[in-house]
Design brief:
Layout (H helix, E strand, L loop, with lengths): L2 H19 L2 E4 L3 E7 L2 E6 L3 E4 L4 E7 L3 E3 L4 E4 L5 E12 L2 H8 L2 H20 L4 H4 L3 H16 L5 E12 L2 H73 L1 H16 L17 H4 L9 H6 L1
Antiparallel strand pairs: 1-4, 2-3, 2-5, 6-8, 7-8, 8-9
């Protein structure tokens, strides 16, 4: 074979390789593809595997998985005139790649348009709610309302809205500080009120305890006085009977009691004449009264 024929054969192989390589494309399980010819749709390739096309045709691939849009949080004025930051995100799926391509051309353009629709719908729906609603079970109903509205507005894009969620609802920093200050003031007021009530209760309890103490002590003293009175009466009665039966022994007993009471404390000093009748039983158990020396001489 001449060199010329070999060159022609090589060129043919190269052209054939280029033709084959530009005629084959692969569709993954997560893809759906549009075959376009000069920008016009020819067919949709959604079956995973190797697909064929003409070399002058092009392929536009789109995700078949669930995608998400997460625009920045927006500040919303609620119906009760409170401001909050709302962070919402959406999940969607491209169900009609041809309509999607014809309306937005690519996913980047759609993300921007869909994000604007989601943000405006969230602000419109949330602005009709009160803060209490956003923090209660009504939140689920609000998210369903947003989802239905967004699904209706994006119906012509060839997508299906899977879900829309409000991730978080925060107060703006300035509002948060005011709320925290107000909450702290209210808690301090409640704490002061509780302390005041506690102190008042403590004073009332102490007053009641003091009154009961006085009453108990007074009652005890009254009972003691009654007992002492009864004891003294019994004692006097016994002493009276003893005096009637043996006056001399009674006088002796009374003197012993007087001695005991007088000398109960150590170091007791008494300025009494030795001839005093107080010491009558000191020198004579019989109790004969002691007389002075002058009286003895006269006798």
């Amino acid at each position: 074979m001449s060199r010329f024929k070999l060159a022609i054969f090589g060129v043919v192989l190269i052209l054939l390789g280029i033709f084959v390589s530009s005629s084959i494309f692969t569709v993954r399980e997560t893809d759906q593809a549009l075959v376009l010819q000069f920008g016009q749709w020819k067919r949709t390739a959604s079956v995973p595997g190797i697909q064929f096309k003409w070399p002058w045709q092009s392929v536009q691939k789109f995700e078949s998985r669930v995608l998400s849009v997460d625009p920045p949080a927006e500040e919303v004025l609620l119906s009760d005139q409170k401001r909050i930051l709302v962070d919402a995100f959406a999940r969607y799926k491209i169900k009609d790649p041809l309509k999607f391509f014809q309306t937005v051309r690519n996913e980047f353009t759609f993300q921007n348009r869909f994000g604007n629709i989601l943000t405006s719908t969230v602000k419109e729906v949330v602005a009709q709610q009160a803060l209490e609603d956003m923090l209660s079970e009504k939140r689920n109903t609000i998210m369903e309302s947003i989802r239905d509205s967004v699904a209706n507005d994006t119906e012509g894009f060839g997508i299906s809205v899977v879900d829309i969620r409000i991730g978080r609802t925060d107060l703006p920093e300035a509002v948060s500080q005011n709320v925290y200050d107000r909450m702290r003031t209210e808690r301090e007021r409640e704490a002061n009120l509780l302390r005041s009530e506690g102190e008042e209760n403590a004073r009332r309890i102490r007053a009641t305890a003091d009154r009961l103490q006085v009453e108990i002590i007074a009652e005890a003293e009254r009972a003691a006085q009654v007992l002492r009175g009864n004891g003294d009466a019994t004692r006097n009665d016994i002493l009276g009977k003893a005096y009637g039966e043996d006056p001399e022994f009674f006088e002796f007993f009374r003197s012993l009691e007087a001695y005991r009471e007088t000398f109960a404390e150590p170091g007791t000093t008494m300025l009494i004449s030795p001839d005093s009748d107080f010491f009558r039983y000191f020198g004579d158990v019989g109790g004969i009264p002691r007389v002075s020396g002058s009286k003895k001489k006269n006798k």
